Amino acid sequence: MNPIESLVSNLHELAAQVPEIIQPLVVALAGAVPFVEGEGGAIIGVVGGMHVIIAAIAAAAGNFLSVLVVVLLGSRARHAVVERRAVHAVAAGAAAAGGSVETLPAVSVKPESKGQQRFKRWLVRFGVPGASILGPLAIPTQFTSAMLVAAGTPRGWVLLWQAVAIILWTTVAAVSVWAALTFIVLA
Questions:
Q1: How many angstroms separate the CA atoms of 42 and 116, rounded?
Q2: What phi and psi, each to the nearest 5 degrees, are found at residue 12?
Q3: pTM for this structure?
Q4: Domain map of the chain by residue range?
Q5: How many CB atoms lie under 10 A from the CB of residue 58?
Q6: Could you give the angle at the alpha carbon of 146 between the alpha carbons of 159 and 52, nearest 5°?
Q7: What is the rounded distance in angstroms from the CA atom of residue 150 to the CA atom of residue 146?
Q8: CA distance 25 to 16
Q9: Cβ burial 159-181 (10 Å sphere, 16+ → b, else e)
Q10: Is 15 in contact with 23 (CB distance < 8 Å)?
Q11: DSSP letters of 87-114?
């Protein structure tokens, strides 16, 4: 038995200890973890003996739910920051014009980091669809979606394209590992 067959056999034995109805939840939890994501969760499920479609759906759902939480929280945080900056700008303008506004702490404008500049160039070059679909090649979807929302992209647009990317990459990973196991390793 080669090492890959041994790994598959051991993962099957481990998965057999988990009730069958709980297995998709385990895969969904794996899909929610950054750097594991839908692709890794689907691979874990397929190698563990789950049907490829169930593993892919569970992993993609877990990945999308974590992205949904990040987008909703990131959108609220961005809204709060934008509102606060607007209040400070109005107050500073009134104070400069000689109004009787309390002195507020000055809002310092930090220069953009190299990473922020690179991300903005990438966003301008590829747009939200390209950033969402190509993003998982470099960073987790949760990070990509947080950066897109922080840059001011509407959350519905981010969620739509993140869903497309998650479905695409999870499907590619699940079908690839299924085909490799079916036609190469276990043939």
A1: 31
A2: -60, -45
A3: 0.79
A4: 3-185
A5: 26
A6: 55
A7: 6
A8: 14
A9: bebbbebbbbbbbebbeebbeeb
A10: yes
A11: HHHHHHHHHHTT--PPP-PPPP-PPPPH
Alpha helices by DSSP H, listed for 17-154, are 23-31, 37-47, 52-96, 114-134, 141-150
Per-residue pLDDT of the chain (187 residues; tens, 9 = 90+): 788 788 778 888 888 888 999 999 999 999 999 999 999 999 999 999 999 999 999 999 999 999 999 999 998 888 788 788 777 667 666 666 665 555 545 555 677 778 677 777 877 888 899 989 988 888 899 999 998 998 889 999 999 999 999 999 999 999 999 999 999 877 6
* 37-47 and 23-31 helices, crossing angle to 10°: 150
The phi and psi torsions of 163 (rounded to 5 degrees) equal -60, -45
Tokens coding 125: 């070059």
- Neighbouring C-beta atoms of residue 45, cutoff 10 Å: 29
The token duo for 182 is 């079916």
